[in-house]
Write a structure and sequence with these properties.
With about 170 residues, the protein is an alpha+beta fold. The chain is about 45% helix and about 15% strand. The chain has seven helices and seven strands, in the order H-H-E-H-E-H-H-E-H-E-E-E-E-H. A three-stranded mixed β-sheet has the order 1-7-4. Strands 2-3 form a two-stranded antiparallel sheet. A two-stranded antiparallel sheet has the order 5-6. The protein starts with 16 loop residues before the first helix and ends with a helix. The relative contact order is 0.23.
């Protein structure tokens, strides 16, 4: 889970937190030749858990654990409401786990992706070659990048799994 391909970053105008804090590690991983699937903000910010969903699905279970979940998420919802005006939290890391369990949640595209490591305002920016030119003019793809997500299905699966564990 990291990067931002076609959307703004979440710690700078262009960089996502995980890549920004250690762009050199990301660069090493991206150039390693290992098969990597990148789950950027482009998809994780579409997967939003709302305060209304917590109230409707989690609170009615009515035990100490669900009360803890309600109490602890209330602060997160408040923070997001102040920051963005919305009472919802993106499920960045849970989506990464979800994609490992069910790859059909996302649609992937092959891209050549690089990371800006020089520091300064562009540190940690992920740059995907999205040019519409002949493939022979491009550098070969090094990552599968998730570009679309079935957000509703994932949030439903997430709530189902969480509530099953909380009951």
């Amino acid at each position: 889970m990291g990067g931002a391909i076609q959307v703004p970053g979440n710690v700078t105008p262009g960089a996502e937190f995980n890549i920004h804090v250690d762009p050199h590690a990301a660069e090493i991983a991206f150039t390693s030749g290992l098969p990597i699937t990148l789950l950027p903000l482009d998809v994780t910010q579409q997967v939003i858990l709302t305060q209304g969903q917590i109230e409707a699905v989690v609170r009615p279970i009515g035990n100490r654990v669900t009360q803890f979940v309600c109490d602890s998420t209330e602060r997160l919802f408040g923070h997001e409401r102040e920051r963005t005006g919305l009472a919802g939290i993106p499920l960045h890391d849970p989506l990464a786990v979800g994609v490992v369990l069910d790859q059909s949640l996302v649609t992937r595209r092959l891209f050549h992706v690089e990371v800006e490591t020089a520091g300064g305002p562009a540190q940690g920016v992920t740059i995907a070659d999205r040019q519409r030119i002949e493939e022979e003019w491009k550098r070969p793809p090094n990552l599968q990048v998730c570009m679309e997500v079935d957000a509703g299905r994932f949030v439903g699966l997430f709530l189902e799994r969480v509530c099953r564990q909380l009951s």
